[in-house]
Specification:
The structure is a homodimer of 273-residue chains. Chain A has 273 residues and is mainly α. Chain A has helices at residues 8-21, 40-49, 51-59, 64-74, 85-97, 100-108, 112-124, 141-149, 153-160, 165-172, 175-187, 192-204, 208-214, 216-230, 236-245, 251-266. Chains A and B meet through helix 1 and helix 2 of A and helix 1 and helix 2 of B.
Chain lengths: 273, 273
């Protein structure tokens, strides 16, 4: 199949597309469900518009922080707001390095300029942060602080790792991305494996996006509900509807799902077999 | 809005994405409906994979026939079969020329090499042709015939125009593409205008893809049904289900819809306002 020769940038776009289309994905945008302000087409438009930044990463030129900044800039060209900030944090080093190993090497080489570029990218989004966060991205003093402390982008991720599972992937070597890719291969070829993998991750790890928005109790309850679905004690449809009704969207596990699809596609998993 | 600065290649990809997502589109693949062999994700994968050919067209380098060939090659990288052959016939000259006027100038400059490249592209698809077609694309003699008769790609389209509304756009100056773009602006900003435009075109013109597959009577009956929907005498949902049950898919009007969205986006119509 020609797809094994697929470019890394295209593979990343395919991963972004397949993740948003997969349905039913409890609480998240999918073929059957939009958010009031952000619809599936916004996610797909971002998938298209991110191409130049993903190609930059593919060439392995430039710096990670700057490329993440470019990806966020390029995908700001619609009214759906931030769609893929967390996904880019994972995808850009993966595309840059070509694999989890390569991504880790690239991550180790980040410096303060990456941290500054990243905070500028963060400033373009409306991503939720802790109010008690020491380095508030909306505070201009934060950039000076980063420089004073000589923090690299890896240091920034270390700083966020306790409360953000996407940042934690950088610090710990992409273990959930790895687990997601393994689950896809375990569930077998075909797009239906994506929902199975998503619900499995959701049953195993509290989603930190949910935790930031609703608190850790709700994140843990969502885990428990996902387990009930896997054990056949609850339907996926009921779980989805309940998440939608309560505005619970597992955004961080969606980001990790995209990274996992990217890795699995590179290892021969086929979405349309 | 930054989107007015959107590159033509991206605008074409956006048009392809918006068309396939629009729902409910009677008989065609959309967010709520896949074909047995071809799902929405295949259309979206083609949207991603066509980027290099669309960029080639955007640069205005090379020849139309060859670029259409490249677009078909690049989108063969999945198991969903042909998704956008007709759309590329319209989009490639539109992207190349930047507008309908520009496309017509590019079309007039096609020669026999374009015709040969186009027939090679056709050979990669499984697009339905008339059995009585003089120039069977599966017959190697056709290419020799093209050269002997010194047919340009415009001549080939002229040859097909009577029975193929996409080819007819080349010969007649994109009148349905123009009408579709005008309808979008008339219906106003927002993705819901796409379905309104699609059903309106369907009510006004017999779809030649339906005619090739089921005969002109069925194509005319589909027109009549679309009119009933517009007049409120039938629901869009019933019409859609009936088309699906009878395997009636208005593929040519879908191609023209993509071209119309491309033109409208370039004229300031906004899909997400």
């Amino acid at each position: 199949m020609t797809c094994l020769l697929m470019r890394a940038a295209e593979r990343a776009q395919l991963a972004m597309m397949l993740e948003v289309c997969a349905f039913p994905k409890p609480g998240n945008v999918d073929r059957c469900h939009d958010y009031p302000e952000t619809c599936m087409e916004h996610f797909l438009a971002s998938t298209i518009f991110a191409r130049p930044a993903l190609e930059e990463a593919e060439r392995g030129e430039g710096r990670l922080g700057e490329i993440i900044h470019h990806a966020v800039q390029q995908t700001n060209c619609h009214k759906g707001g931030n769609t893929h900030f967390g996904a880019f944090i994972l995808l850009i080093p993966l595309v840059y390095g070509g694999s989890i190993e390569g991504a880790m090497k690239a991550i180790e080489r980040t410096d303060t300029s990456d941290a500054v570029a990243f905070y500028r990218a963060f400033g373009l989004t409306k991503v939720r942060t802790y109010s008690e966060d020491e380095l508030d991205v909306n505070d201009p003093k934060s950039l000076a602080e980063l420089r004073d402390r000589e923090m690299t982008l890896l240091d920034v991720m270390q700083h966020s790792a306790a409360n953000d599972m996407v940042a934690r992937e950088w610090v710990t070597g992409f273990p959930l991305t790895r687990r997601g890719a393994d689950l896809l291969r375990q569930f077998g070829n075909g797009r239906q494996a994506i929902v199975q993998m998503f619900v499995t991750l959701l049953s195993q790890e509290p989603d930190t996006f949910i935790a930031k928005k609703h608190g850790i109790i709700v994140a843990q309850e969502t885990m428990r509900r996902a387990r009930e679905v896997l054990e056949g004690r609850e339907t996926l449809e009921n779980f989805d509807q309940d998440c939608i009704d309560r505005d619970i969207n597992p955004g961080s596990i969606a980001d990790i799902t995209i990274a996992a699809i990217f890795v699995a596609l590179g290892e021969g998993w086929e979405w349309d077999s």
